[in-house]
Design goal:
The protein is an alpha/beta fold. Helix content is 46%, strand content 15%. The relative contact order is 0.13. GO terms for molecular function: methyltransferase activity.
Amino acid sequence: MVLHNRRALRRLLYAPGELGLARAYVSGDLDVEGDLADGFRRIWALTRSGAVRGAKLGPRDWAEALRLAVRLGVVGPPPAPPAEEARLSGKLHTLLRDKSAIAHHYDLGNAFYQLLMDESMAYSSAYWTSEEEGYDLEQAQWDKLELICRKLGLRPGMRLLDVGCGWGSLLVHAAKHHGVTAVGITLSAEQLQHVRGRLVQHDLEDRVEVRRQDYRELRDEPFDAVASIEMGEHVGEENYPEYTRTLYRMLKPTGRLVLQQMSRGAVAPGGGAFIERYIAPDMTMRPLSRTLGHLETAGFEIRDVHALREHYVRTVRAWEKTLEGNWDDVVALIGESGARVWRLYLVGGALAFEENRMGVDQILAVRTSEDGLSALPATREWS
């Protein structure tokens, strides 16, 4: 670890731990020589072993620490956080604040995300079905989209709702390859613009509708199938019951839901200080069991849970490789500090999935009929 100036020490002094390190790295006050992922791996290993513990300082220790801080020149006001840090205001998860939180992450500009992602513009874990040379992220994302459509049992003429549709990957895939009509909703103005362009490109304007709309504002007739892919993390714990009730309300009896969502342990429900300040403000992840409980309380029958944790490791590493390969172009679009935010995010994210500190699952649920009919096949026909 290389500290380039005294400001780096002040950042660590005023915000010890993850946030101070992130601020110092993003601002360029601190660098890591060698492999960044390996550095993270070593830090987490020390944490797990108990080797890193808070020191118990007495009065003499504090006096010596203060003298050392003066000699090092780190006594002074706290440095301002980098401009990339989110500064949201207002009550958590109101309609207005949720729009601001989504804009912070997803409205960086479509040009940036087009550099980062593959042609599908799918910003969620892929589904890697082959180890053959040449099998890449674009093919793995196609396999993920196809898996979702098969789990939903999509057929020509069915109506699909995509809650948190992103850049439209599932909408386009389901309409082109499964003959459905579809509605997608997003809070991101940039995503809305991009999806509308894709619908024109693929001649799907008469079959797919996209809106800038909150899930709480949905008033449509029930759909044959509903998908929500890695959107539930943005809902918040307090509003999650309303989210699952809305998904249930939007389905016809015997309609299927595919919910893909990240998870983590009960002792760490959020994404951590760095994620919450720089990547996904107000993000909340919960244990898988709690998500299943919310779905069941809303009325769903859980039919299948498919863990994709290792698939996300490969997905995030593919994005990180693309980021490094397009580094100069990324810096030109979002600046050096913005690019460093994303490097830190992707390297740390891949490691979190690798070490089982975070997970991701595809959940298949059904709204049964009044007499309990699910209309699902007796076997997993999507396997």
